[in-house]
């Protein structure tokens, strides 16, 4: 059984790339069991923040703690091992079937070694069967069970995005980091994905930190919203309060004018 969701506390995180401050002392807390959105105009630092949380980038300063454990400096697989799984802005799947991709998500939970698996020793076979069963349940939860033994390549964009989320859930995380889960989807797929995200929290009890440009989705789903602009946190609160915040409105309007 997965351990209960815990608090993610981001404190004063700074990331500098050769002269550019991508994150400037950013702080926010993702409450256990909540859906928390991280939003902001293009280049605000959202992906950089995800990369710090998942161990891809090392922060220049500040701290990230999950369930009281310091994450900064840990490699991605150790962070995943603590129960934090992520998806990417662009779908990253390996060739093979849906099942193959989901079993990769189970890898960190497998106790049988490579040799006993390769020799198909009974214990390893039983373990593989159990993991496959759980992967199937998760595929079913995501609505992609019908494709379980099919190659991922020909699947629709929406279904491939679901495979990616299912693979992250196969790690049995306590916190799921979703990077733009509805980007590139049509309105029907977006609504279905919003319902899925809500179900992940409601039925699996997993906390979710979501980066998303679709404001309708953010406002409908999120309990709390943190807004970044040019690497700084400019607002943090309920969707309603953030939506009314003059600095947030100015940040979004300003960027629209720039790109007009
Ligand atoms: N590896 C890197 N090296 C140098 N600069 C980077 C790197 N990654 C991001 N940046 C810069 O850091 C800033 C923040 O980028 P980031 O991708 O985190 O923003 P974002 O909010 O995710 O944007 P978008 O909504 O467009 O995905 C940008 O100015 C970007 O060019």
Automatic annotation (TrEMBL):
The keyword Cytoplasm does not apply. It comes from the Bacteria. The keyword Nucleotide-binding applies. GO terms for molecular function: ATP binding; ATP hydrolysis activity. Residues 8-255 form the ABC transporter domain. GO terms for cellular component: plasma membrane. Keywords: ATP-binding, Nucleotide-binding, Transport. This is Branched-chain amino acid transport system ATP-binding protein.
């Amino acid at each position: 059984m997965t351990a209960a969701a815990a608090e993610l506390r981001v404190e004063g995180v700074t990331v500098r790339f050769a002269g550019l401050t991508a994150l400037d002392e950013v702080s926010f807390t993702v409450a256990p069991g909540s859906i928390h959105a991280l939003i902001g105009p293009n280049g605000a630092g959202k992906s950089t923040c995800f990369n710090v949380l998942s161990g891809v980038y090392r922060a220049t300063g500040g701290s990230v703690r999950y369930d009281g454990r310091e994450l900064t400096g840990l490699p991605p697989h150790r962070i995943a091992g603590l129960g934090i799984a992520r998806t990417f802005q662009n779908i990253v799947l390996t060739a093979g079937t849906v099942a193959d991709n989901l079993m990769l998500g189970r890898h960190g939970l497998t106790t049988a070694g490579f040799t006993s698996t390769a020799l198909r020793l009974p214990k390893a076979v039983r373990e593989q069967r159990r993991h496959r069963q759980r992967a199937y349940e998760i595929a079913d939860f995501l609505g992609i069970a019908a494709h379980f033994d099919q190659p991922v390549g020909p699947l629709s964009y929406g279904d491939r995005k679901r495979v990616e989320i299912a693979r992250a859930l196969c790690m049995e995380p306590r916190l799921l980091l979703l990077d733009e889960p509805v980007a590139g989807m049509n309105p029907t797929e977006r609504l279905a994905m919003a319902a899925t995200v809500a179900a992940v929290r409601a039925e699996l009890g997993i906390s979710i930190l979501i980066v998303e440009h679709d404001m309708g989705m953010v406002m409908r789903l999120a309990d709390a919203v943190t807004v970044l602009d040019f690497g700084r946190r400019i607002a943090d609160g309920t969707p309603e309060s953030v939506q009314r915040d003059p600095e947030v409105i100015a940040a979004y309007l300003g960027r629209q004018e720039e790109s007009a």
